[in-house]
Amino acid sequence: MYPVSFEYHRAGSVDEAVALLSRFGESAKLVAGGHSLLPLMKLRLAEPRHLVDIRRIPGLSGVREEGGALIIGAATPHHVLERSPVVRERLPMLSEAAAQIGDAQVRNMGTIGGSLAHADPAADLPAVMLALGAELVAVGPKGRRALPVDRFFVKLFTTTLSPGELLTEIRVPLPPPGSGGAYAKLPHPASRYAVVGVAAMVTVSGRKITEARVAITGVAAKAVRASATEAALVGQGAEAAVLAAAAERAVEGLTVRSDPRMDPSYWRALTVTYTRRALAAALERAG
Ligand SMILES: Cc1cc2nc3c(=O)[nH]c(=O)nc-3n(C[C@H](O)[C@H](O)[C@H](O)COP(=O)(O)OP(=O)(O)OC[C@H]3O[C@@H](n4cnc5c(N)ncnc54)[C@H](O)[C@@H]3O)c2cc1C
User: Fold this and answer.
1) Which of the four pLDDT bands, split at 50, 70 and 90, describes residue 162?
2) Distance 230 CA to ligand 1 centre (A)
């Protein structure tokens, strides 16, 4: 199907994008890579009359290290996260996850800001950002604000972004020494979206796990932290038996979304298995 006709606006700056969103209100939508929005428009599930393209705004794409964090521009495409030397060195979990998104075309076009703002329940980067404890920076008509990722995802395809706001950057704190992170994913064989994806970040000191953040995507209506798993890890020895017991708890409090193609008990079992895999790889990287 063809989308309804729309007017295309290429914003030259963040201020111009905000002004265009204010001017056209609910009839406008931002577009970055277009790889989530355009399929919806072709199905007429989204019918914006104005598209505000933010992909070429100078400074909105790229990665830099600053003040103990990686600062990622919201319009940074997935392939940059996959290949950037600084991401590979400082946050290998992020490049590992980006490399598993869709195919080369999707990774060339899709952006981190688009992925987080779209909040698809099977997207990879929401879980990775939860495990990394990122902070999302948004700019809108009332100015700029920082949103902790833990409060960003509300429900299916819904975030705490206000109308007229756009994400401009994602600030990821660099983990302390003794930390390791990993992303384990079972991709859907056709789309490559996560059937289940688990992002784990652990910090080890004196053979004990001192910090753990674990997040799951694909299974519930939004990416969620596995709080019971995290609690079962902190203060414990970095041992296989501890990991296995903690992974079993990944499904505690997890509301499996309804999908006629998936048996919920199989989905839970997959979640436990991929949590165990992500934790084992994260601990190995933590050394
Ligand atoms: C065949 C296929 C396979 C895919 N496989 C995967 C996969 O395996 N894993 C995965 O995670 N994803 C997958 N995707 C999704 C892909 O990663 C998308 O590109 C991404 O989720 C959205 O990014 P985008 O830049 O294309 O956003 P767009 O489609 O341009 O926008 C998506 C939504 O976000 C809004 N938006 C965009 N940028 C911003 C911003 N800076 N601030 C606020 N709102 C914004 C738009 O208004 C729109 O509502 C797949 C997509 C396709 C088509």
Assistant:
1) very high
2) 29
Contacts 24+ apart (CB under 8 A), 4-10: 4/41, 4/44, 4/47, 4/49, 5/49, 6/41, 6/48, 6/49, 6/50, 6/51, 7/49, 7/50, 7/51, 8/51, 8/53, 9/50, 9/51, 9/52, 9/53, 10/53, 10/56
* Residue 72 identity (one-letter amino acid): I
Q: Evaluate if residue 35 carries a pLDDT over 90.
A: yes
- Cα(28)–Cα(171) distance, integer angstroms: 27
Q: What is the mean pLDDT of residues 90-103?
A: 97
pLDDT band for position 189 (50/70/90)? very high
Kindly give the distance from the C-alpha atom of residue 56 to the centroid of ligand 1, in angstroms, as a whole number: 16
Q: 56 pLDDT exceeds 90?
A: yes
Does residue 214 surpass a pLDDT of 90?
yes
Domain end, chosen from 143, 173, 203, is at 173
Q: Are residues 188 and 208 in the same domain?
A: yes
CB atoms within 10 A of CB 241: 9
User: How confident is residue 158, by pLDDT bands cut at 50, 70 and 90?
Assistant: very high
The residue type of 181 is G
Pocket test for ligand 1, best of 26, 30, 78, 129 (most atoms within 8 A of CB): 30
159 CB less than 6 Å from ligand 1? no
Summarize the confidence of residues 7-34 as an average pLDDT.
98
Checking if the pLDDT of 37 tops 90, the result is yes
With H, G, I as helix, E, B as strand and everything else as coil, classify residue 28: strand
Q: Is 127 in the pocket of ligand 1 (CB under 6 A)?
A: no
Q: Residues 207, 281: one domain?
A: yes
CATH of the domain at 11: 3.30.43.10
Instruction: Give the atom of ligand 1 at the shortest distance from the alpha carbon of 191.
Output: 3
